[in-house]
Amino acid sequence: MFNIRTTKQAVRYLALMTLLASPLAAEEAELGKGLTSYEREGEERHAIGSRPMTLIAEAKMNQARLNEFIENQGDQTPTDEQNNPVTDEPNNNPTHEEATRDLNKPILYAGAIHYLYAYAWDFSWIELEDGTVWDVRWEDRNKITGWLLMSDNLYVTQGGWFSKNYYKIVNQSRGIEIEVDLKATPIVGGSFTRTVIYVDYKNGLITLNDGTIWNVLSNDNYLLSTGPWCVNDIVVVGLNSDWYSGSYPFILINGIVGKHHYVRIRQY
């Protein structure tokens, strides 16, 4: 008979029993289920941080985000949008509505909706339909049991300021979120892969291979040149849950520059 002696053993035992009892584990022989590796023959990915920012540029980015967080803390004054029309320049005093996006609202750009394509046998990582692979925080791995492959609506957004992870993946279909970090970039030439085909550094515009054009938040425009962002960069479209989300509701994650490198955007 199995003897549970420690809390850690108990947690591992319960996790294992949950895994074995789940419908996902029962069908692990199917494509994408219960894998030991996400690498498949014939698929190509760019290494994360293969064209990194300089240390000075990265320090500037981190300081700018910290300053933005400090400056905007506590501003929760509601404001009529008609009296504060959206412009190309960020609002220096965003309202609480502007700063906090309702992530349960419908997503208006299909490229920001993602689907679970595969997962590790121990749920330590998951792969989305575009080929991105995400390390899942240990405490959140049990939340993935029951997620349906290529069915549940998922989206990627920023992690909290005090989180150990850079991003979150939210299962909008089930009302569940997990904290993650980018482990592998999208598949080169994949059917669901978004690729940069044009960058206007001066005006802060990015064009993707699906024909969409995106306006970058002025606060983030410098990242295009300090990255730098280039044609043929492969990106991930997510939702902005940070400041200016009311007028710039999306983010573009460029893992080639770094695992936590993104800009806030809106459709042009």
Structure description:
This protein has helices spanning 7-21, 23-26, 55-72, 96-99, 222-226, and strands at residues 116-119, 125-128, 133-136, 154-158, 167-171, 176-184, 194-200, 205-208, 213-216, 234-239, 250-253, 262-267. With 268 residues, the chain is an alpha+beta fold. The strands form two sheets. It has a six-stranded antiparallel β-sheet with strand order 1-2-3-6-5-4, with no helix packed on it. A six-stranded antiparallel beta barrel has the order 7-8-9-12-11-10. The model is unreliable at 1-30 and 76-101 (pLDDT under 50).
Briefly say what this structure is.
The chain is of the alpha+beta class and 268 residues long. It is built from five helices and twelve strands.
